[in-house]
Design a protein that fits this description.
Chains A, B, C, D: In the C-terminal section; belongs to the purine/pyrimidine phosphoribosyltransferase family. Chains A, B, C, D: It comes from Lederbergia graminis. Chains A, B, C, D: Pfam families: GATase_6 (PF13522), Pribosyltran (PF00156). The structure is a homotetramer. Chain A is an alpha+beta fold. Chain A folds into 2 domains: 243 residues, Glutamine Phosphoribosylpyrophosphate, subunit 1, domain 1 (4-Layer Sandwich), CATH 3.60.20; 183 residues, Rossmann fold (3-Layer(aba) Sandwich). Chain A contains 18 helices and 23 strands. Chain A has a 7-stranded antiparallel β-sheet with strand order 3-2-4-1-10-9-11. A 6-stranded antiparallel β-sheet of chain A has the order 5-6-7-8-12-13. The first copy, chain A, has a 4-stranded parallel β-sheet with strand order 17-20-21-22, sandwiched between helices. In chain A, helix 4 crosses helix 5, helix 9 packs across helix 10 and helix 9 runs antiparallel to helix 16. The two termini of chain A are 25 Å apart.
Chain lengths: 473, 473, 473, 473
């Protein structure tokens, strides 16, 4: 069946707050701290208790919002969203939160994750006369809610959620309440915080530090939390739950200063590096990491291996969005706008290059070449996670089966393809060990599907790739 | 006399190339690699041998130029400039290269440095009927050239340069040649490279790596280089020269992958950290650096001290240009948009925080507070350069005498002000030692004026602060 | 019942073409010629036979579209829309054509007119689970089509149209066909043209002159025209029809070079002026018109009265969109950005000022004052239509009952309010007479509802005002 | 000698005010009323008595300025400028007022006219070491002032003006005074007004009506007016003066509601039409004017000829700035975006088409063709000015000798070229007669150089065309 699976989707970040006089401004800062989770677009919807008002745009949080816009978003409650840059674009219509107005009131929706049966549900709804305005799987939830026969939004939502399969962290807001729902496997991170008397919610705990909120607790798998002027109320919409938090959140995606399920991301990465150093056991002169995400694991590796950690690769801090493509000749000369090697550091050295993962192999190949051209005698590539053999359907845009190099090639073959002198992946056990060592203990389950192919949910044959989503409109 | 000195100026980056079919595009990439030297504005002037054409704007290189603009900049030669964000603004009129047209041909000018007697020269020129269009000290050179009685541009330029005091790396371009001049003390870095048969010139060697050029040599103090279709010709406009390259280029300003006078910047910083560790000799649990500029010295420190290097502070990669100011309440809660502590790393630890310099002390105080609020048991601040007691007049925007905390306070007082448990500055000897250990040896002189007050040139009482420049227009 | 009627709506312009290689460009020019019908927004949807593609924006046609945009709108067929500036704004989401995508294909919709039972239908549809994305009455048609049980779009559309009451000229486009529908009373103008072998459709015939098309015929009340690659096919969705073209299209709204039902608008206006002159019979020195819409009737008046026609009022051609409000003091001094009197023309004269209509009376008062301040001895106001006593529900944004000065005051009272020396309205009979004299004869019926209160359709108590539409979202 | 004359220049509009709390806002409205004199760019410089502040941009007044910008232009005095769209562009650097800052104070300059010896003076100044920043002839005056040895600005200016030849209406502003100078032949219009106690100055009197100012008097040829906090002071910098106001200001350029030297422009045009009707004496059915500038003369013509005036040509009010070029095919079909014929008005009729002038003949040819294609039986072209045989060097962008159709062809030949049934130009005597009949009598001299070739000033062989100006930079 996996042969038919066509793809996977997008990662995003969500933030919400209820009952604070500066709701829009706090949401702005919250989204800013989650910017690494999505750079395509950003949006904020505020509620003043009587109506919802939206402000959205394409680009970074600091590009989308001006001080004037934020000051005009009056209201005590807000939800916000940052959207990941999918290949096929998407346009302003897909920027979240989605806002639905009807003569019975308004509903705003922000979503991080991926609904694996979105396409089947959409077919069904359209056959019943529903008109979809976006190509987003998020809109499906709105239609399911509207068509549910139940009387209260809570019941409508619980009914609708039972029809969804996949990974989701949903924020919904009306004039009267903020509803928070996490999928029954808890695939995506979602935490509750408190700033003064006001509850807030965010994809990552780093948002709480930035706005001066305290961490309260993580949202649990299958939990539905309702926040309104009476406080926080929790219940469960599913009792068939498991704990399958995405491992790649630790390995690559989240910010180093976030804690996921009690485990700090930087510390987890450093541990991954330490375990990797023990598993690899390579003779070399220096250890270098690929900035920014692999710096922590490279330092852990260097410490464990007793080797000097060096800054062998520099990331240009001002990359920005250049639309100017180098000409063929310049490309061959190797224009390096994002990453440059530090010649004096690697020249004549046996270099261990630590990276977090290999998806298609093209980036690794480019970096190995770059280091060798800069004079490295040997380049040993050490990856702080296992080979990624299966696509992710839960909101991380990896690739199809065919494009995943580790799905098509052995480690030895990959090593040759990328031109490295040796290639070591962290073992599955080492990965679990390294992350699980801290926090609430070994029982904390993790989704390892992209490494093992064991998916925690059903997968459907018509689950769409992001660019297919656009075309299917 | 120093009591009357009112200020100092701006840092910038320059790039030029002669005789390459893709001159504008290469200059674009060159400027992009020098972006860290100036983010206020950027400009490129190209020559097709018959006329000069300029394109400039405020903002980052990737914001100023579109692919279409670059493709319209026809010509085989180009010079470019990135401009530092001075406090008082400046506007598009001051973005360089400056382009002067007359009925005898055109002249483009790009400048990195600061002319300390600009104001006096401007007074004199205005008294003779010259009209200045910018508030830039760079324009003075154009007027001196135009009013010089000599017949050729080379002679006019040599004559004009004898009137200038201060630090300067000048690029001048006409329809027929590219002229390069470095001040007699060699205060600012400037290097020659070669891409195919075409010579290029850049403030830092990292530009050569990015465009695939080879490093040829550094420009020498007092040297005038002329590049035209006949090749490269060198002569000297001054024989009273010294080697006084700015120490802060190594400590803070340049990119880690650049080499200045044969010494790699990352390596110099790591050495600074090592020497600092020996001088400091502090008991602690972890070493952390203030990103990005102090990572190298922190790693050197950690290695020398045998302590673990940790990522105790995270820099938000998407800071961008937010014009949204946190409200008073949020400010008190400590909104941290640029830098956040990693609580799990510092909690309960004795932390050594390595930074490159202390100017006013406000940033250091904020970081120390941040680390303590995140649970650090002790915070020991170690600075990888000596106390900065005197303003810089050569192009680095430090501050006035009164604002430099080390000019007003002892090390003990500063330690108290910033709330640290201890404060260690690297010694002057240690600094010379650490940088001079590599490269062409100890004889390579350095400007240490901001630490010692011994300036390599005359200083004038009417040298202007950047914001005063604006007002004086 | 009329006392409860709350308002009316917006005027717009539509254009469509099927099967021409330059469909988007022709639609651009067509919309440009209809710009006077709506300046808030413009949009074009093209079909290349396989998919529909939209481009829309707020502002004028020349502001919304760039040459690049038009060149990217590939396809042989297109529909376009210009939208009237309603008071309450509306935003990009309401700019037409609306484009609905589903897994069975796409549907684009452009509409000129007003559905008087839109609100009731929307209530019903929302109760059944439909989610509306716009506040436009146009979207109701899309939902009715989607929920109709019929198999073909033609049948679905015919079924849906029977549920709509009001005035409408609809263009619908799918990958395979262009559908055109006019309401059973033919309240809005809509004509078919031909350019080469390709049929086109436009709100006004002036669009055909501009693009070099020939006029074919007017669309008939209750007619449904389908244009596809097999040619043009016509049928009727209603047999209970009448001819009630809006009189204000002749009096004020349409372009003078358009023909509506065979009658040229400029000629109709000149005739209105002639009849008015006979009915008024006033002694005066000069006749002047309020530019631009009343110039034709003023010239007709002057010729009939044997008086000189003079340019007593000048309209500033560069008014643009100034958001700069004059201060109170300047307002009192009478800043005149749009209209200025020509002092030398009116000084000491008895002036007949011809205008097309009086809605609230404020503009007339301002012009009379302006003329008197410029020295006019007497100002006689002559209006080339009857007193407007009842609001329009069919797409012209007049006003509510309470705001219509002629609904609240007698002619004598209005004359006093506006400060005129006399005030003459054209009679209802004179109006019919003047317009009906030409074209296909007297049988050509006209909607005179705004003058007489006799509406050709049912009116519902919840018909919304434009600004109420926004609020009801 | 005329064979060597290479060209002519640009028309503009100027406005200034001294000592009014709302100086910037009033200047904004003043410039808005002068918008017809220049649409390429606009600028305002304000003085608060201590410093000058500029705001400029390309485009219309309403596009260049926002409410926020105007509100930030603090000061009691201001000058402003609107710039004509020259073919070769020019860019923001040439948008006026020019602002020159020096250590002795600031000087702002706005200019309407053309300095015929600008090029020679520029050569001379550059040879002396001056650097020009713009390609504008206006900058020459600033350099002449700066290099003059006199002590006060008034004396420096008087000295500089004696070196200038040509047409000019100059406004100069410093922190302390507003200086106004008109060339010794009074070629360009310039008038003084008063709003409350504050004097203002404008190119046309229509600006006074718009801002609620009273007309005081016209500035006289060779007069220098100084306005400061002590009031208005007048003296003459030349006693060799004549009155040679530009005839084309009456015929075409000025707004109909302006008075130039006591003569209303609309009335002058109507008179031109009347005299033309008497001179032409043609049998026809209808008279039509080419909008907007020929409507007045067409009405005068129709009244004198006893023929009906009809709106045979419609100008699209929303032409805007379309950069979308019709394809070849569409062009051949005759896309008419700016002007359309009213078929029903001209069909089968003998049409007299009144226009103000013929420059190259291409527009006339296009309109004649348009009218014939719309069914006109005969088209008789009547021009309300004499054949334009010589280029203008005084600020109106006509054309070179070679491009002026009347310089190369007889009236009969032109008639054939444009395809008219007859062609009549107003005689030189008729022109003088028609304009001179009103106002201060026949003695009021006029520049008729473009009709007669008799220039009131010297003309130099290096007077530049506007596009040559750009190239010469």
């Amino acid at each position: 069946m996996l042969a038919e699976i066509r793809g996977l989707n997008e990662e995003c970040g969500v933030f919400g707050i209820w009952g604070h006089p500066e709701a829009a401004q706090i949401t702005y800062y919250g989204l800013h701290s989650l910017q690494h989770r999505g750079q395509e677009g950003a949006g904020i919807v505020v509620s003043d208790g009587e109506r919802l008002q939206a402000q959205k745009g394409e680009g970074l949080v600091t590009e989308v919002f001006t001080e004037e816009m934020i000051s005009k978003l009056h209201g005590q409650s807000a939800i916000g969203h940052v959207r990941y840059a999918t290949a096929g674009g998407g346009g302003i219509v897909n920027v979240q939160p989605l806002l639905f107005n009807s003569q019975n009131g308004s509903l705003a929706l922000a979503h991080n994750g991926n609904i694996v049966n979105a396409n089947a549900l959409k077919h069904q709804l359209e056959a019943q006369g529903s008109i979809f305005q976006t190509s987003s799987d998020t809109e499906v939830l709105a239609h399911l809610i509207k068509r549910s026969g139940f009387l209260t939004l809570k019941e409508q939502l619980k009914n609708a959620l039972t029809m969804l399969k996949g990974a989701y962290a949903f924020l919904l807001m009306t004039e009267n309440e903020l509803l928070i729902a996490l999928d029954p496997n808890g695939l995506r991170p979602l935490s509750i915080g408190k700033i003064g008397d006001s509850y807030c919610v965010a994809s990552e705990t780093c948002a709480f530090d930035i706005i001066g909120a305290e961490f309260v607790r993580d949202v649990l798998p299958g939990e539905l939390i309702i926040i309104n002027d009476d406080g926080l109320h929790s219940e469960f919409f599913s009792y068939s739950t498991s704990n399958a938090i995405c491992t790649m959140e630790y390995v690559y995606f989240s910010r180093p200063d976030s804690d996921i399920q009690g485990i700090n991301v930087h510390s987890a990465r450093k541990n991954l590096g330490r375990v990797l150093a023990r598993e690899a056991n390579i003779e070399a002169d220096v250890v270098t990491g690929v900035p920014d995400s692999s710096i922590s694991s490279a330092i852990g590796f260097a410490e464990e291996a007793g080797l000097p950690y060096e800054m062998g690769l520099i990331k240009n801090r001002y990359v920005g969005r250049t639309f100017i493509k180098p000409s063929q000749e310049l490309r061959e000369r190797g224009v390096k706008m994002k990453l440059s090697p530090v010649r004096k550091v690697v020249e004549g050295k046996r270099v261990i290059m630590v990276d977090d993962s290999i998806v298609r192999g093209t980036t690794s190949k480019r970096i190995v070449t770059m280091l060798k051209e800069a004079g490295a005698k040997e380049v040993h590539v050490c990856i702080s996670s296992p080979p990624m053999k299966s696509p992710c359907f839960y909101g991380i845009d990896t690739s199809t089966h065919e494009e995943l190099i580790a799905s098509q090639h052995s480690v030895e073959e990959i090593c040759k393809i990328i031109g490295a002198d040796s290639l070591t992946f962290l073992s599955v056990e080492g990965t679990l060990d390294a992350i699980g060592r801290q926090g609430y203990g070994k029982n904390c389950g993790q989704c390892m599907a992209c490494f093992t192919g064991e998916y925690p949910t059903e997968i459907f044959s018509d689950t769409l790739l992001p660019h297919e989503k656009e075309l299917s409109r």
